[in-house]
Amino acid sequence: MDDDASQWLPPPGAVVASRYRVERVIGEGGMGAVVAAEQLPLGGKVAIKFLHPKLAKDTENLERFVREAKAALLIKSEHVVRVVDVGTTEAGLPYIAMDLLEGADLGQVLANGPLASQLAVDCVLQAGEALAEAHTQGIVHRDVKPANLWLSYHRDGSPFVRVLDFGISKLMPASHGAGDITSTQSSFGSPAYMSPEQIRSAKHVDARTDVWALAVVLYELLAKALPFPANNVAGIFAAVISDPVRPLHHARPDVPPEIDRAIRLCLEKDPTFRCSLAELAAGLRPFAGPTGQLAADRIARAGAPIASLLPPKGAPSSEDLIALGRTEPASSAAKPASRMPLYLGVGLGTSLVVLAAAYALTHRAPPPPEPLAEAPPLPPATSAPAVAPPPASQAHVEPPPPPPVASQAASAAAPAARTKLTTRHRPHPPAPAPASSAPPWSPERH
């Protein structure tokens, strides 16, 4: 492979794919090089990443290059660099055109010294937001490190981080029909940021390996040192697998202990015990600025995978869990008890309730008969005229004079008819009321 990219890169001023004019080289790496270019004819600025021509001949390297563009298109997050074009130049060089970013990667920023706590937390939370969105798409980055986190600033001075290089990301088989082309023997990633399970097999990893790497990045941003120091790659692998985490307060006594606790929970060697991305965001949110708090809230809404309940042996304390937003204590057993008896009991109880309800509906007693309306009292057996009592508002008004004798027969017939209508359903009509010397409308009765 040629060490000098100028021998195969388009020179400054050259037009690539009939729509990009190369301006300058931004950087070079083992996979290729990145140049700044002008987008024709609009004049916008883009960064074009070229794959080395010798690597382009290899199917796996070419697939890895295309996978980076595909992952960036799948992840809908402002904290992932936007891909605007993918293609091949006239000379056969595969390229990816992306937004041209201003600023520097966190590896370059870290060269000037450790970051302030709030800035470090904000950077990690914004990177975590991009990773949370990637995880919902079934994508695991597998190479989270300071060099792949690009820091720029908004006009108001707030930090803005983007995640770069999804080239070795793992696309889950269930995600958009894409398979994982990583061979079992391959070891992708940067040794200092690889989780224990990634060291053993880069193929059999999930979102929790990104959580590990992000915690290592946060530790390094605060301490400008690694949590598992060693002199070589073999020593790093051995320390990651077997050594405890170097306490953060040894390098940064001013860092709040809650941040140190959150980092340790994410660096559990067994991924079953490891803190989830959502829990890490909840633990760091009190120490973040406005942009970091917004990112933490978005992580919580993204539905990031939650780790299983932690067994008590070797698990973090309840104080640690509460600090990270967990409200339930760890499980009281290493393995959860079988739920089959619970399911059987619930099913049996439900069946009994249904049977009882059905029996109650089919054997329901008939409702009691409605009481019949009481018939008005019969008029007394007297020759006095049966005149209806006046309304309540006229109870004490002087009664009207009795009707003429000629109309007495008609007046007596009306109560008899009403009595017949109201009592036709009664088998035994009530006995007539005793005669009274006072007429029905008499004031003494009211």
The secondary-structure element order is EEEEHHEEEHHEEEEHHHHHHHHH
How is the biggest beta sheet arranged?
6 strands, antiparallel
Q: Name the beta content range.
A: 5-15%
Q: Largest sheet, order of strands side by side?
A: 1-2-3-4-6-5
Number of helices: 13
Output the radius of gyration.
43 Å
Distance between the termini: 121 Å
Shape label: globular
Structural class, by secondary structure, is alpha+beta
Detail the poorly predicted runs. 171-187, 304-315, 317-339, 381-397, 404-426, 435-446
Mean pLDDT: 75
**Helix content range:** 25-40%
Q: Would you report the number of β strands?
A: 11
What does this structure look like?
The protein has helices at residues 53-56, 59-74, 106-110, 117-136, 196-200, 207-223, 233-242, 257-266, 277-284, 290-301, 318-323, 340-362, 408-422; strands at 15-16, 20-28, 32-39, 44-51, 83-88, 94-99, 104-105, 139-140, 149-153, 159-163, 170-171. By secondary structure, it is α+β, with helices and mostly antiparallel strands. The strands form 3 sheets. It has a 6-stranded antiparallel sheet with strand order 1-2-3-4-6-5. A 3-stranded antiparallel sheet has the order 7-9-10. A two-stranded antiparallel ribbon has the order 8-11. α4 runs antiparallel to α9 (277-284), α4 (117-136) runs parallel beside α10 (290-301) and α6 (207-223) runs antiparallel to α8 (257-266). The longest helix is centred in the C-terminal third of the chain and has 23 residues, at 340-362. It is globular and about 85 Å long.
